[in-house]
Amino acid sequence: MRTALLAFLYAFVVTPIGLLRRLVRDPLSRRWDPRAHTYWTPSAARTR
Q: 29: alpha, beta or left, given left = phi > 0 and alpha = psi -120 to 50?
């Protein structure tokens, strides 16, 4: 019973929320930009 409830919650609550969030914004900035010279993003400098 618990497995069926968790599967239901995942299928009808978690998945739609994730899909809607992807429609609003791109969390990994993976959109293609034809004007971009490079997609490299410099990492933050390390501090010791």
A: left
Chain-centroid distance, C-alpha 5? 25
pTM over 0.85: no
DSSP annotation of 37: S
Mean pLDDT, to the nearest integer, of 23-40? 84
Which residues have CB under 8 Å from 33's CB, separation 6+? Answer: 39
Residues comprising the chain, all counted: 48
Neighbours of 46 (CB within 10 A): 5
Burial class (CB in 10 A: 0-12, 13-18, 19+), 34: exposed
CA distance 40 to 37: 9
